[in-house]
Amino acid sequence: MEQQTKTKHPRGLYVLFVTEMWERFGYYLMVGIFLLYMIDPISNGGLGFSLKKAADIVGTYVALVYLSPFLGGLIADRILGYRKAIVLGGVLMSLGYFGLAIHSETAMYVSCLLIILGNGFFKPNISTLLGNMYNEDALKAKKDSAYNIFYMGINIGAFICNFMAAYMRNNYGWGYAFATAGVGLIIALIWFLSGMKHIKHADVIKPVQQGDMPVSKVLLYVFLPALIFGAIGWKIPGNWMGSDSNDAFMFACVPITIFFASLFFRAKQEDKRGIGALLVFYMVAIIFWIIYNQNATGLTIWAETYTDRSMPESVAKVAAPFNLVQTVSTKPDTFPLVDHYFHGQTDEKGNALTGVMVNPYYQNLPKDQWPPEGQEQKLISTEIFQSVNPFFIVVFTPLVLGVFAFFANRKKPISTPIKLVWAMVFTGLSALIMVVPWYLSDIYVTKSAAIWLVSSYAIFTVGELLISPIGLSLVSKLAPQRLTALMMGGWFLSTSLGGKFSGMLASSWDTFENKANYFYILTALCVVAAIGMYLLAKWLRGIIVERTGSI
Question: pLDDT of 52-64, one tens digit each?
């Protein structure tokens, strides 16, 4: 029995693998269509929001989704336990996804709140359970491969969900698509509960150690001030950051940022180097997450409006039976009003104005490429493009690991700081390549080829593989033991800030007549991060070696 444990992964891994796969199925399905749902006309089942308002909501939603695990992780760690927290989170998220099926702005906001709270209890704790399971001496050697398997489950869910989203929304409507995400969570919960006996040994509530900050103090010193500052930001006259939600979020981040800075200044001398290195890492991570979340904002807008999504007849025949295509025609119908530059026309409340016109898809498609009058055209559904990234993750992971092994075998391993430098280089290139179609043609008259969008996702994936898997691992290695949970919160905060900044930038999409400038900004951020990380690489490498014994 002992030998079997050493040679095989425990069944608990596959319980968590399938659970996470279906949870991510629900999350990425919702994120993939959320912006499209909000900007779709009310007559077509959407909410009829302007692009600015929709992008602002997406940014705020993503920011809060990644901020809530900070508190949810602490509560599970000290009070609830991980299994109870995961079940509670799954129930809340499923209710949220089913709530989105109700065609109502109020229902949308309530549902998003449920998903945000649910994600806070679910996301950090399923990873913690996995880590605890592999802390046993017999399994420690398999920990890295276990996380690789677990990460593959995430990407399988992220890949297949967009095909289901396209099928459901094209055939039955937005509500059914969101409900499908809820079904994914129900499957995840059933699977998790049925396999509970294989993971219960890993669910250990940690007693508060000397020097640990109690949950009550975290609430008092971090979250209460954040709520107060957020309320002030919401109430101040005018909009300093473009919208009330932007003002509220940025104000709320002030006391949180001060708190993390104070951890550094109040830390013992031997802890300062590790905390300082993590604070630098967080700043780089914020920039990475800004570009990452373009997937749900800027790149979705590009795919919807500026990309040639027409399908060759041979491909359409294969896709049509599965109803994965979006059907459009030149027959006038009710659509959002846009000008030559696709700037949405809005009323005094910021909602999109509509009118009877030809589908806006044809506005920048030469008339000689329009289908004959009365004939429908099959298009690739916009959300399908969001499956490109997880596809490339599956394809590129062994290649990237092979490169690491190649240099390691030659006694020249790539250090973590240098991986981060290259991560920002590839991330920047993924934004820069989106400049090319702007210069190849006038995108307001002629659509760009889909290959540019696919290429951007492919290049970005390499950068993602160089930084994303490092995150939580680096925090656990560099953070002082008594501050690990709080520094994990810093990682989630950087993810949250990246999501919000991404939404803020996307909400200004219409102000960029020259879309190349939008992507130049993203590229410039990555250049600054890459140069900064390169200049600090030797210092960071020394700290990592000092704390972990490896580079």
Answer: 899 999 999 999 9
